[in-house]
From TrEMBL:
Family: Belongs to the TACO1 family. YeeN subfamily.
Keyword Repeat attributed: no
This protein's GO CC annotations: cytosol
Protein name (Swiss-Prot/TrEMBL): Probable transcriptional regulatory protein BFG57_16830
Superkingdom classification of source: Bacteria
Source organism phylogeny: Bacteria, Bacillati, Bacillota, Bacilli, Bacillales
Species: Bacillus solimangrovi
Domain TACO1/YebC-like second and third: 79-235
Keywords annotated in UniProt: Cytoplasm, DNA-binding, Transcription, Transcription regulation
Residue ranges of domain TACO1/YebC-like N-terminal in the record: 3-74
GO biological process entries: regulation of DNA-templated transcription
UniProt xrefs under InterPro entries: Integrase-like_N, TACO1_YebC-like_2nd/3rd_dom, TACO1_YebC_N, Transcrip_reg_TACO1-like, Transcrip_reg_TACO1-like_dom3, Transcrip_reg_TACO1_YeeN, YebC-like
């Protein structure tokens, strides 16, 4: 499972290069989940989850507060959550999650991104069945045995706990995300190197140099689209 963490690190590093883009995407997501439920993370678990993720990307407090205040103000701006699935070069698979206020625009832009970069759109379900929704939480300063003991004492289940690149990475069912974090926080852990609810491929593939370059261009183009929130794939991008 180590390669999967490499992919997540790669995604974080890529997004960190464009802070204005990642901040805008978080602002939109925070607004949507705050509007769908209570604008208070203590009573809105979805909002609490997004804010925990935002912390790992150092999203400024001002952006978070502005998005929540916009939701409180009863803005009429509405977004649809849509998922697109497709194929890249040489058997690569891609899932694209979006938040959009213009479904036709988003579908057209995502389709064009695939078509111009060696890929093609698939129908719903053509790719997602090869991925597992997974909570991924990383910390430093503990060993895997330490974390296993903490979670066992808190009666929290995890799929796997691994030490990778100086961090301990917990892979768990999505519904265990908050339970894992709370168990760790109760032991004085406040900083998380990663806190993601992601789609992990059941099997990663390795591309040739040329195919990988084309694939990375496809992912970059997709992630640059305004309506795209997350891009998941089955390509090993670890060094």
């Amino acid at each position: 499972m180590g390669r999967k963490w490499n992919n997540i690190k790669e995604k974080k590093a890529s997004k960190d290069k464009n802070t204005s883009r990642i901040y805008a995407k978080f602002g939109r997501e925070i607004y949507v989940v705050a509007k769908q439920g209570e604008p208070d993370p203590e009573s809105n678990q979805a909002l609490k989850f997004v804010l925990e993720r935002a912390k790992t990307y150092n999203v400024p407090k001002s952006i978070i507060e502005r998005a929540i205040e916009k939701a409180k103000g009863g803005s009429e701006e509405n977004y649809d959550e849509l998922r697109y699935e497709g194929f890249g070069p040489n058997g690569s698979m891609v899932i694209v999650d979006t938040l959009t206020n213009n479904v036709n625009r988003t579908a057209s832009e995502v389709r064009a991104a695939f078509g111009k970069n060696g890929g093609n759109m698939g129908v719903s379900g053509s790719v997602a069945y090869m991925f597992d929704a997974t909570a991924v939480i990383g910390i430093e300063g503990k060993t895997a045995d330490d974390v296993l003991e903490i979670l066992m004492e808190a009666d929290v289940d995890a799929r796997d706990i691994l030490e990778e690149d100086g961090a301990v990475i917990v892979y768990a069912e999505p519904e265990q995300f908050n339970a894992v974090q709370e168990a760790l926080k109760n032991e004085g852990i406040e900083e998380f190197t990663v806190a993601e609810l992601t789609m992990l491929a059941q099997n990663d593939i390795t591309l040739s140099e040329d195919a990988r370059a084309q694939f990375e261009k496809l992912v970059d183009v997709l992630e640059d689209l305004e309506d795209v929130q997350q891009v998941y794939h089955n390509v090993d991008l670890g060094e």
